[in-house]
Structures are given as C-alpha cells and as structure tokens.
Amino acid sequence: MRSAPGWIGGSALLARAYSVAAEAHAGQKRATDGTPFIGHVVEVGGLLEEAGLDEDLVAAGLLHDSVERGTLSSERLRQEVADEIWSLVMALTEDPAIVSFEQRKAALREQVREAGGRAITIFAADKLSDIRGLRRGIARSRGGIEARIGTTVSAMAAHYGKSVAMIEENEPDSEFLAALRAELEGLATMAVPVGRMSG
What we know:
This protein is mainly α and 199 residues long. The protein contains ten helices and no strands.
C-alpha cells in the first residue's frame, strides 16, 4: 500500500480514513490521466487540509469516492466512520441508477447543494482536482481520452462549469473558487484531441 502523505501526521482519524481509502481504491487508475486513483483522493484531502479545515471534513475528502468509485458499500463505510463523515460521503456519491450522464451529474449537483456548505466545500475541492486531472489527461493524450473517461470532454467541461456555478451561487466565499475559475479557463483554451469542448 502507498504510504500515507506527511500531512496526515499524528491524526488517528486521518490515518484511518487514508487506510480505508487506500483499500477502497487499491489497484485503480484515474481515467483522465492514468495515475493511481488514491492520488486523487489524497489531493482532495490535501486541498482541504491546506485550507485549514477540520479533520472530519478532511477525512470525508479522503473517503469521498470510496463508495461511488471504490469498492466499499455504504454499509461498510458506515461501520468505519462517524455518522457525519458517512453522511458527507454519501452526499457526494452519485446515484448509479441514473443512466444518463447529464442527468446523473445534475442530480449529484442538486444533492450536494441540498446537503449544504460542508458537502459543497468537499465538492469544490473534488472538482478542482478533477479539472486538473482532465487537463493533465488531455495534455498527455494522443487521442482516446474520451474512450477512457466514458463520455465526451465537452460533457465533462459542461458539468464542471455547472458545478462551479453551483458552488459560486451557494458558497460564494469558497476558498477554492478562484482556483476553480482559473482551471476552467485553462481547460477551455486547451486543444482537445477528440471531439470539441463546449460549455
């Protein structure tokens, strides 16, 4: 197992959250840039930690994809963490029964909005990491990125744009908004190997 990042330090909660996340994402690669998936959740947790947010929020950031993209069930996660962390993770978890990409992402944005500020904060850090990952993937790709991500780059860009708008409307003082706007602008100016970006 990849060793825990240094910022986890002496926190038993964060060490446990990292261990559970590493188990949930063992062997997984990130579709956008091909890096180990655990790196994404560590980046999200690190963004939250660097912003000076509390340990429960950072732990939820580490675990935010453990059910949606990892191997944990909701029930297993609930056994591992406090109710608040479990609730935050579930607020950030898509409904897999919604087949349409656009409808699934719209439902997720509304679910996060309804969950409130703490869920929106993790969502913002997640989107920042996601956009950076997509930009790296486009920069490294010689074609085929859309097959890897399972949708078009333009659909992803549109979702990210709507996500940032939702964050801005509901948490206008978010510590991640300036970076999100800059990353979106950078994404819009990139040459896309397959398809064409919009929104």
